[in-house]
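To: structure desk
From: M.T.
Subject: fold request, one chain
Message: Could you run this one when you get a chance? Sequence is below, nothing fancy, just the single chain.
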Amino acid sequence: MTSEGWGTRSVEPVSQHYIVCGGNALAHRLVLELVEHYEVPVVVLVADRTRDHAPQIEQLPGVAAVVEYASITDEALREVSIDTARGLALVEGSDQDNIHAALSAQGHNPDLRIVLRMFNQRLGENIERLLRNGAALSGSATAAPAFAAAALGRPNSVEIGGRFLHIAFDDAITSDRICVVADHIDRQDLSRIRLLPEQRGDSADFVRLASEFGDDGPVRPGGVRREAEPGPAPEEEPGGVAALQALRIEPREPISWARRARWRLLDMMRFFTSARMRLVLLTALAAVLMAFGVLWYLNRNFGWTLYISLLDLAGAAQPDQLADIAAGTGTGGLWQRVAQVVITICGITFAPVATAIAVEVLGSGRRGQPRNPGAGTRDHVIVVGLGNVGTRVAAQLHELGVPVVCMERDPQARGIAAARALGIPVVLGDGPFEEQLRRARLKHSRALVAVSGDDATNLEAALEARHGNPEVRVVVRLFDDNFAGHFYATLDNAASRSVSYLAAPAFAAALMGREVRGMLSVFRHVLLIAELTVEDGSGLIGMNRHDLEDPGGVRVIAVRFARSTQLQWNFPDRTRRLTPGDQIVVAATRSGLARLNTALVDEA
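Reply: Done. Structure tokens follow.
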């Protein structure tokens, strides 16, 4: 179905434009990035202009046209002028559909820049080799580190040159910080935050010393330091401050073996839920211990006593014969025979229980069902929703050594198999959140991450979790920025993230040919960490730090020169000009990276 007859502006002849295929939240954010920050013409191809975010996309100023086709066919690609386009972004549909559309588009326009969303990152790496000028990104993989870090109450990190960059706030900022990335931070009014504010240059301290020592030289005659002239005290910047820092290794969540052993022991109690069964087993265990004590007392040999007791428990002990007793070669005495009989009878009690436990543990995995959280589940993170994002978040937390419990209403969700493979407990069912959270051991959890595709569902899960455990930290996936602002102002020990807001800048930068290594979150704001390589004919040739840096937009944090293998952090020489083969690492806002890209294109 085309756009003809639907009252939408028709596709006028257009060239050097960018095409976005999709009508979901990521497509919406990506179109915003392109028209607001990169200021390029955009044509949008949607499956249904009345669903998802298509109506909002259609109202965005700067969108050249919105075209409706049920699928991305050759006819649809010709309708959006694929032959004269500069770039194509495929951000909706399955991996297979996106691969097919990318190869078809490349056939129409071999020089086209193609960026496609892929859940399977390994497959995406292989597809990049088939494309002449393409990149495969995963929106969920891009956003998942921010959600996982927020659940643990710490900033996420981006690995650059063997160091892990992260954001530190206020008192956590150390003297070896790379640069200040935000100030005027006020949780009650996040709109006041300033990203990458202008800061004093490296020579500011020398200028201050020169002014203190006077105009006649660094030291006055007699070596007496001139008293500073009285003046108004510098005003402190209002609000909090955030700075970019580097770690040698990414910190893991240490959990001692004693705590793990305690959790395992408590977890085993789920097999003994019946009070009568517990009474029978405890009585049998007490009888075995008493009989073991009798055997040890009679024989005075601990090793032999343990050996014969285990054989009796397994029913493998050899009974005394009358001929042996008459010859004096028996095991020795009436009381020893009584003790062995007691152990053997109790062993008959333990055997069925052990068999049932083994069948339950092994059988649940073979039936393809995830295991339920046990009584030993403690200090864990509850992940609500096992879609693309939830699966990534759960896997990353598990990799960090954090106990995880997942909740999912759809038994066919793609993330259930991944959770089962990792041994992560999953609570399945479509019951009330109160009951589901109780089964997920909310009372003993440290955080809840709600990452379903619906804002209302995520908020409901967060509020229900806070009602059941006032101390639990909640991290909610929200699309609407105003909604998120009210969320921050209302709840303490809470965080909000938007998958599309985190992923869209990376997709936009990739569409422009820039490599974004990762994103760091400053509340609802995003700071991009990008690598730029100086190639022959690049607009970067001849530029220095003064040319590249833009207060509020771009900050150069590291440089690697062509003949060096090491990154130089905070390179002090701001006048050295870049040559082919050099590489720089910048921290930039979304608009800052867009302005830098536009300037480099113009220079080239």
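Reply (cont.): The mean pLDDT is 81. Let me know if you need anything else for the meeting.
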